[in-house]
Design goal:
The structure holds 2 protein chains of 2 kinds.
Chain A: H1 6-14, H2 17-39, H3 49-68, H4 72-90, H5 97-118, H6 127-139, E1 160-166, H7 170-174, H8 179-189, E2 191-199, E3 205-213, H9 218-221, E4 229-232, H10 260-287, H11 293-320, E5 322-324, H12 326-342, E6 347-352, E7 357-359, H13 360-381, H14 385-390, E8 397-406, E9 409-416, H15 423-432, H16 444-451, H17 461-466, H18 472-481, E10 485-491, E11 495-503, E12 508-516, E13 519-524, E14 528-535, E15 540-542, E16 545-550, E17 553-559, H19 560-563, E18 573-579, E19 586-590, E20 592-600, E21 614-619, E22 625-629, H20 631-642
Parallel strand pairs in A: 6-8, 13-22, 17-19
Antiparallel strand pairs in A: 1-3, 1-4, 2-3, 5-7, 8-9, 9-11, 10-11, 12-13, 12-20, 14-18, 15-16, 16-17, 18-19, 21-22
Helix pairs in contact in A: 2-3, 2-5, 2-12, 3-4, 4-5, 4-6, 5-6, 10-11, 12-13, 13-18
Chain B: E1 2-7, H1 11-21, E2 27-32, H2 35-44, E3 49-52, H3 61-70, E4 79-84, H4 89-97, E5 101-105, H5 109-122
Parallel strand pairs in B: 1-2, 1-3, 3-4, 4-5
The chains are: A alpha+beta, B alpha/beta.
Chain lengths: ~650, ~120
Amino acid sequence: MDKPTPDNRGEFFDQFLDDYYAECDEHLVSIRRSLVTLEDEVDGRAVDRALLDNLFRSFHTLKGISGMVGLAAAEQLAHHLESYLRELREGAVVLNQSGFEALVSGVSLLEGVINARRNDQPIPSIDDMVDRLQAISADSVTSEVPVSSTEKRETDASVTRWQIEFTPTAELAERGVNVNSIRARLQEIGAVVQAKPVVKGAGEIAFEFIVVTDMDQTALASLEADGLTFQPAPVEPAPRTREILPSPMIAPASVVRVDLDRLDELMRIVGELVISRTRLEDQVAELKRVTPPAAWRLLQETNSTMGRQLRDLRESVMRVRMVQLGEIFERMTFVVRDLARENGKKIIVQLSGGETEIDKFLVERMTDPLMHLVRNAVSHGLETVTEREAQGKRSEGVLSLSAMTAGERIVIKIADDGCGIDRNLVLARARAAGINHENAEIDDDALLNLICTPGLSTRTEADRESGRGVGMDVVKKATEELGGRISLATRIGEGTTFTIELPLTLAIAEALIVSVNGQRFAVPQSGVREVLEVESASTKVLENNEIISYRGKVLPLIRLARVFEMNHQRGERFHVVVVGEETNAVGLAVDRILGQREIVVRAIKDPLAQSRGIAGATELGDQRVVLILDITALRQLAVTSRH
Amino acid sequence: MNNILVVDDSPTMRRMVITSLGSLRRVKSTQAGSGLEAIERLAIEPVDLMVLDLNMPDMHGMEVINFVRKHQAYRNIPIVVLTTKSEESSRTEALAAGANRYLTKPFDPRQLADVVGSLLQTS
């Protein structure tokens, strides 16, 4: 009777597919997080009940929503995973290694099924997995060890049990004071061991919380302002005490999911506003000559206020696009765990800075490259237990993933304490592949360039599979396309660290506006080291390259006029914008520096208009297009022209 | 205007339910992501009908039914249980506790709207 007609249901529920994928992602993240913790409890006497509850609920929800969108394979797989979790929860089976591995593979397959649907690819078969899950529930020996709840019993005399009562009202809800926010505040004070609704004399609903804390009642005093009352709780807990756990999967009704496209649209409109304001600024400046000073000052003040507000607006929109890196770190942990077992290695993963936020778009682009670096570290960097012990290292390898923000940029480090990259091996491979490299001694930068050369791989055929088609060249390209930078530090026997620097966001950037031959260009501020004024007479030509001396070193010059084939009259003096790192800095020769501006970056999509050395275009308010220079490509141009 | 409280821990599921009920006239929806939140909504505004999931964190749907049926002020609110098909025993349990209807997911949007519409008319 409850069976819907499949045809019209399909159409109806298609409109929820984006929500469905987003929610699946959230659950899969939460599941992976739980599985990593659960691994420590394999064969243990007591499994954390809360962990099992969370896992169970995630599978349960995935089953429900997959059924709604008609993805039967995901629905069934989630159903079998849920059933196994139920048996674990009820203590009917004990979590052993094979059960745990089945869970892990089941989750990977579930993700594969969902992604296959998302990418319109054939849905993988779930039959074998279902058999495997059924087998472990049937085969496992019935446990005599009950799965015990990890309820915390506080016996310490210094802790107090407080009974807190909260009466919700429409006014409080309006101010964001509700049962969820109150509980979150109580969790900061202590452990919330009970939360239940009660009805008072007049039929009024209230919530009764019991909090165990070592803080005194001043910690609770701030709650009184919101109409909460508190008193020491009766010593004996209520007969049905349930431990209330912070559950990461509750999506409060006040959270809205937004499609990334809509945020892009919002960012685009903010971009238009930035351009209009730049135009306004120019017009205000022009009015100065013809406007009475007092009136002009007022105009100018309003204009700058608007500039500030626009910056705030831009930052707010940017914040909405930010996601935490922790999610991708957890996915990596999962991959590491799997790979380590396949390769017979013991690896400790250290995470830090998971709360660092980055633009969602950047995360999506960087996931595969980062995953590749992590796989490399496990497959090639870290040694097996025997190899490590033979070298006197601790038997577990350490892989550390860290993230931090540095100004307008974000720095991600992937470091291992493994064997390091063998320069001689890389050089030998390079020569074998026909890539000439005269120097026998190469530094880390040159080494990175070599291993990022397309077609050069130190991997064997079998390893190639583990890389899943993404090579170091792709990692470097992806990073640089996003305006980022990758660097390497490696020492034989001690380990390897890859550092990736990325801009926090893409759409709007600070730039230096320069002019060459009357044509304006924007140089992204993040790549600029310094601006110099140079006399034409002081440049030298060395092996067909123009150079100047810069801080005691030689700085190659790139004449933008020549790169973009413009007819150029050189003046007596010109400006040089120094870009790039210490070791590979180059100078861009330009006529004038026009100023610093906030620019809205637009990609040039028309292949006919694309040109090497140009990253995109922007406008500055006078509706004339300004090209944005691609510093990385220009530097490469300088390098290749040297040979 | 009838106020329908949609309780489910999955935001996608809540949207699906609310959209399904969009075909009913003179109906608005409020939502809650857990049992406790559902009870809070009852305290804040009049609710004419509840569409309730069972398996939720914090407070199970069965506890919500028991709470609502126990208290004079809320006793008569019609409850439609909408839960993922898994345990048939829960159907008997939920109906015995006082749920008016028991539907399973995946659900048919039209059927849900029909059930809710007819309960609102008779209550």
